[in-house]
Amino acid sequence: MATIYVDESSGSDETGKGTQEAPYQTLAFAIFTHGPTTTILSRKDAATTYEEPTQSALKKAKKGADGLEKKRKKAEELAEREAKEKSEERERKQKLLEESKKIVLSEDSSLPKAIKSKIGNLTPLRAKRVRASGWVHRLRDQNKIIFIVLRDGTGYLQCVLSGQVAQTYEALTLTLESTVELVGTLQPVPEGKTAPGGHELIVDYWKVLGASPGGEDAFTNRLNEKSDPSIQADLRHLVIRGETASAVLKLRAALLSSFRESLVSRDLLEVTPPCMVQTQVEGGATLFKFDYYGQPAFLTQSSQLYLETCLPSLGDVFCVQESFRAENSHTRRHLSEYTHLEAELAFITFDDLMNHIEGVICDTVARLLANPSSAGLIKQLNPNFTAPARPFRRLSYVDAIAWLNEHGIQHEAEDADGNVIRDEQGNPKMVDHAVGDDIAEAAERRMTDILGTPVFLYGFPAELKAFYMKKIQNNGSGPVCTESVDLLMPGVGEIVGGSMRIADTEELFAAYKREGIDPTPYYWFTDQRKYGTCEHGGYGLGVERFLAWLANRYTVRECSLYPRWPGRATP
Ligand code: 4AD
After folding, report:
1. Where is the region Disordered (predicted)?
2. What residues form DSSP beta bridges with 489?
3. N or C end: fewer C-beta atoms under 10 angstroms in the chain?
């Protein structure tokens, strides 16, 4: 038999093999593993030589080996006992399952007729027998009592199953996300306990409508908090079943209703402009093009031009319509498709426009906070939310440039072709802002975060803005500026973009020319100036950005039902 080696300092009983290259650490372990008759050589450390251990060392080691053997036996016994218990438990469960199949529930017709209700409408039905259907949101089995938290979109309901109703095969094999119908008496929760709505359903009859798989394919194996973002994006249809994601979508619905109420109360009429168009609004670079019966067409970037055409027939108007931007922006505030709330107002001044935007936003937020259900959602998602104070701060573009420079907020320098200039290490060269520069997203975000309140940033140079914006008469110094305004919110940045529009036909033709736009397909927009022009203006608000601000979401992607961004149009 080969000689076994022990090195008391560098050897290891865990990873060693008893060879010279990988010695054990203790004599006891060597004897325990290879038996007392093996030849063993041992040394204190690498500075000494391998020698036969002394008799007394061997004696001590044998005792140690006996101890190890006892330990091993004990562990073996324990494992056997556990395996036996497990198999008994399995058998017991199997038997219980078999038994459970014999229990068949039937609804007791002598009980009062159950009233079918959505969870959200249950409160007036306390003490009555009710019937509720939904998805098993949470499931807990405690001393033969099964607690289900049922979800139906209108709310959550705690349901208690005990006795026979908790012993059926369906009860014992129930899984999360299964659909069930539960019938029972609605009772206030016992003192000291809490449950959604303050009541619980004491179930006397129930059935599974659609069982959700368990095991490998169980819901929580498909998706859980640790799932990586790309999986969460693929499984958005399952993500929205979650408490946070669904709360955001509920708040979104409340937000849209609230906006509509605020706008209608200001005599704006809702219209529905087309999504398939043949004109651009915000520049050709972000247009999604498609073939429309052999003609080029686009998905709309903004419904503004159509809203303008409604003024003479319908007065002030608004729409809530999808807008599409083919921007290759992977930021937390850009989507390829977003919900655009746009409004257009006739016979107004630039100041009226800003007052209107501020009024609509504050009114909408006040409505949301006055409604217990939407106020609850805001509290759940953004506990520190406080409504913004009026008036909003107004900062001109020129003053904002000075502010950025005073606060040392620089931007990346670009060469004449628009490429970022980098140093030898590849870091971008940072420079101060100058009047005429675009204020990039990063700088804008830092500014809003430092200011900490909503800010109207107004009067951008015409060069930086869309063709339709009204110019401010200047005294010949500095760039030609526009009656344009962005509303910036802390944490998100720009949420509204608006302006006064060119009302004069000649000025509009000059603007088409400057932007290299062929006026022909815009004949209907131009006619607006020809047949009774008026001073008018409007704005577009990004609903997802507004919601990200209101609900304190990290990205607009959480604020859209099925968000689209570059490379993502599924599900
Ligand atoms: O500033 P924008 O491009 O303005 C317009 O489209 C005007 N025609 C609107 C009008 O005056 N009727 O866009 C308006 C708002 C932005 O402030 C932003 O909130 C949102 O639309 N927005 C986007 N939201 C998400 N993803 C994108 N890619 C967005 N682009 C603009």
Report:
1. 1-21, 45-94
2. 493
3. N
Taking the model in full, what pTM does it have?
0.86
Q: Kindly list the distances between the CA atom of residue 88 and the CA atoms of 44, 76, 93, 359, in Å, as whole numbers in the listed order.
A: 50, 18, 8, 70
Pocket of ligand 1 (CB under 6 A): 281-282, 302, 304, 325, 327, 334-335, 338, 340, 342, 494-498, 538-542, 544-545, 556
| pLDDT score of 284 | 84
Instruction: Record the tokens describing residue 161, joined without a space.
Output: 């199953």
In terms of phi and psi (left: phi > 0; alpha: psi -120 to 50; beta: otherwise), the region of 143 is: left
pLDDT < 50 regions, the chain? none
Other CB atoms within 10 Å distance of the CB of residue 307 = 25
Mutate to test the pocket of ligand 1, among 340, 483, 550 (most ligand atoms within 8 A of CB): 340
- The strand pair at 156-161 and 199-210 is best described as parallel
Question: How many other β-carbons are positioned within 10 Å of the β-carbon of residue 291?
Answer: 8
CA-CA distances (angstroms) from residue 18 to 23, 33, 494? 4, 10, 70
The pLDDT assigned to 1 comes to 62
Options 2.40.50.140, 3.30.70.890, 3.30.1180.10, 2.30.30.30; CATH for 115-210 is: 2.40.50.140
Q: Which fold has domain 4-83?
A: so0334 like fold (3.30.1910)
Tokens of 105: 């529930």
Closest C-alpha to 557, from 570, 542, 545: 545
Decide: helix, strand or coil at residue 540.
strand
